[in-house]
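I would like you to help me understand the sequence and structure tokens below and explain how sequence relates to structure.
___
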Amino acid sequence: MVLPSGVRLLGLLEHSATGSSAGLSREDLRLLAAAMDEIIPQSDEMPSASAAGGVAYLEQLGWQYANVLEEIGNFLRVVQQTSQREFGVEFGALEQQRRAGLLKDIEKSKPKLSSNFVAYVYEAYYTRPQVQGLLSCSVAGVCSEDDESLLAPVKKLTRFYREVP
């Protein structure tokens, strides 16, 4: 029992020492954040996808599901290769307009890969408690004097049950 735990611990230590996480290097994680923020950028009251914790969410998803990690890695490779080929620089160094155009080109040339990545980004964003809290609607308080008017429609309803002797 001690040996397998120790081997797992050594594997984790080696993984963290190389600067990779769930198979993604630090450079991959920066690229992931840049691509995510291009899909869901920061707005006046809402955080960007990476600022809301989307990168960490996708890392954890990659730890749990190897196919997710593979799809994200494939998308990031296509983004980086396309950026290098078309502009001669990495994706993160591009101005916003070129980033958006590059992602649209990938969407046209590799629609399945692109749509899967966008779905992961949306999942990572909209499952964050911070984002859910900002999206939730607040209900205005009701005056206690108005309780009877709130109950009136309910009192008019017929019974949805039957009396049992």
Remarks:
- The longest helix spans residues 66-87.
- The mean pLDDT is 83.
